[in-house]
Amino acid sequence: MLSVSLLSALVATASIADAHFHFGRLAVNGEWKPLMQYIRNKTSPFEDEPWTPYQNWNTRDYFFPTYATDLPNSVRCGRGNLAWAPKTDILRVKAGDTMEFVAFGGYPYEWNDTELFQFEGCPEGRGVCSSKWSGGMTKLQHFGPVLVHLSQVPEGQSLTSYDGSGEWVKIHTTGFKIVDGGKPWWLAYNGLDYQSNGQPERFIFKVPKQTPAGQYLMRVDLAWPGFVYKLGADLISDVQGQLYPSCAQIEVESDVTGSLPKGIKIPEDLQPKSQGMQTSLEMYNNQKVDEGYVYPGGPLWDGEKLIEDMAPTKME
């Protein structure tokens, strides 16, 4: 007989394809930009590497999740993104500017349906809303940390052809707070208010003032961690996590020159067993926080130094 915990894990695995989303719009200093103007699109359908044993197909649709074992360019900025790079505008921002991304579901041909999606006049200045779906199509559909990285375009290369194979420096994480005696409450998925489970927390961040002038890929992603389930010493299940990357093309105006500090490599440092990319089943089921859990994506750059991106260890 299956245990309740194992059954819940299997149900979660079976429902992987039921809820997808895409980071398709951004704002600078509170001003929302047109959909996909500065964000590389994705090719759909796209032939990627298969994920086994849970999925053995490799034809991926627009909103299918990305896995760390997919093709490197898919993990960096989305499936087939390089084909769209020359068609994507470059957003000019200043070091110190405030930025925000918004996620929503649906297919591109549905975005013009004003019954499904509204991109203007949304409550609280949000970048997307829906009068039909009560927010279900206009929010993140999975828990996990939202990560923002920068990758500086190498000298001699062009932003509209750069593949992101250089280093990536993390400049923002929206993670969780601890509630109800030790449970993780994922802010971008659940919202700030633990009692009312209201609107998801907006992941608003700043381009560090110390960012050197130059062109960058800005990568936003939600990392839905995988989990490992053990019964005694025997490994029962080892479920790979999911990624939802999008990349904006930006040029930073700054008085600072030089390069960013040392970063991570993608996909090499976002593998299924990389730091923060796998949890216990108890943490996956939001029952408790694993001791010493560190968010994935490498250390966090605060503009002056790299710091370990530790998750909270106690209730606020």
CATH class: Mainly Beta
C-alpha geometry:
globular
Instruction: Summarize the amount of helix as a percent range.
Output: under 10%
Indicate how many domains the architecture comprises.
1
Question: Largest sheet, if any?
Answer: 7 strands, mixed
Structural class, please? mainly beta
- Can you write the helix and strand succession as a string? HEEEEHEEEEEEHEEEEEEEEHEE
N-to-C CA distance: 39 Å
CATH-derived topology? Coagulation Factor XIII, Chain A, domain 1
Q: Supply the number of helical segments.
A: 4
Q: Low-confidence stretches at least 5 residues in length (pLDDT < 50)?
A: 1-18
Please state the CA-atom Rg, rounded to the nearest Å. 19 Å
GO cellular component, one term: extracellular region
Keywords: Carbohydrate metabolism, Cellulose degradation, Disulfide bond, Polysaccharide degradation, Secreted, Signal
Domain Auxiliary Activity family 9 catalytic: 20-285
GO molecular function: cellulase activity; cellulose binding
Structure description:
The structure is a single chain. By secondary structure, the protein is mainly beta. The chain has four helices and 20 strands. The chain has helices spanning 4-14, 72-77, 187-190, 281-284, and strands at residues 22-28, 31-32, 46-47, 59-60, 91-94, 98-104, 146-152, 167-174, 176-179, 183-186, 204-206, 214-224, 226-231, 234-239, 242-243, 246-253, 264-265, 278-280, 300-301, 306-307. A hairpin with a 3-residue loop joins β9 (176-179) and β10. The termini are far apart.
